[in-house]
Amino acid sequence: MGELVLSADIGGSHITTVMMDVENRIEVPDTWFRTRLDSTASAQEIIGNWSNAINTSIALKNITPSKICLAMPGPMDYKKGISLIQSQDKYRELYNLNLKDKLGERLNFNPKNIHFSNDAACFLKGELFCGSLSGFSEAIGLTLGTGLGTSHIEKGIAHDSNLWKMPFLDGIAEDYISTRWFTKRFEELTGKSVKDVKEIIDEHKNSDHFKTLFSEFSSNLAKFIYRFAQSKKPLAAVIGGNIANAEAYFLADTRKHLFEMMGYSLPVKKSILGEKSILWGAATSH
User: Fold this and answer.
1) How far apart (Å, rounded) are the C-alpha atoms in residues 156 and 20?
2) Same structural domain for residues 178 and 229?
3) Fewest beta carbons less than 10 Å away: which of 33, 233, 263, 269?
4) Where does the chain cross the membrane (predicted)?
């Protein structure tokens, strides 16, 4: 067994932790742990819940990792481990705190061996490391869910592209490529309120407007990828997030639209790692 790293994916409502053997590209069996979080809680409670999740994964095999690597949304000074989230509905209580020091103290772990990385960048890094983009070097990544995550590779390093707020159509990109767009547009077409894309598929797949909805989305997504690709010149793209699970209804059309715009076929692949792409990306970022 090679060097073991504790990897964590911290979202707005959950934390997932697992021990990784990076050298051999394997997940340590029976160390996966996931629990819900209240990201509006106090700093002490949030850091306590993170620590409990990390300790749970470590205790499952009773092996101390050499590093603890955490993927987390920004804004953040990732190198120093200082959260800069201030105006979002999550983790406001962590603003300006040194999370490396706080976690190190709570876990009795050297803060120098605790590392933070951007979650969108980790998604792409993981897919390149052992996922659907294995063998590619220059690529872009999109996570399609409640919000829009974007990432790109520059000189071998994964970066958050931060394009969710890019001017797009009559608003910003996230207005058109997110769960919010699906629920809003579905209600405009049908007059019915739905919670998410899964509900649309499960309960309204045979409705008159289902094809219209996904046809519009595939067009929006292709236009966005085209603009993204124009600036970053990738060799491939990968999509992940909850909306990617509905690929059967939009991905073929997205590729077709993209081919028409670009004049060549840019590989657009669905993540094969799912949530594990972020965990692998975090574990291999330091």
Assistant:
1) 22
2) yes
3) 263
4) none
- Evaluate the CA torsion angle 12, 18, 22, 24 in order and state its sign: negative
Q: Are residues 109 and 11 located together in one domain of the fold? A: yes
The Cα–Cα gap between 72 and 229 comes to: 25
pLDDT score, position 224: 98
The string of pLDDT tens digits covering residues 130-168 is 999 988 889 999 999 888 999 999 888 899 999 999 999
Q: What confidence score (pLDDT) does residue 32 get?
A: 95
Q: How many CB atoms lie within 10 A of CB 62?
A: 6
CA 76 to centroid of chain Cα atoms: 15
Q: N- to C-terminal Cα distance for the chain?
A: 19
Find tokens 């970022």 and name the residue: 285
Residue 173 lies in a domain: yes
What is the pLDDT at residue 13? 84
Do residues 152 and 118 touch, judged by C-beta distance below 8 A? no
Q: What is the DSSP string of 136-192?
A: -SSEEEEEESSSEEEEEEETTEEEE---TTSEETTEEHHHHSSHHHHHHHHHHHHS-
Domain count, the chain: 2
Contact 9, 279 (CB under 8 A): yes
Cis status, amide bond into 73, omega within 30 of 0: no
Q: Are residues 44 and 170 in the same domain?
A: no
Closest listed residue to residue 183, CA positions, set 249, 257, 252, 243: 243
pLDDT of residue 20: 95
Residue 175 confidence class, pLDDT cut points 50, 70, 90: very high
What token pair was written down for 196? Answer: 């998410």
Q: Is residue 128 part of a domain?
A: no
Task: Say whether both 84 and 151 belong to one domain.
Answer: no
| Start-end of H helices in the chain | 43-61, 99-107, 119-130, 173-176, 179-190, 197-204, 210-232, 251-262, 276-283
**CATH number (domain holding residue 258):** 3.30.420.40
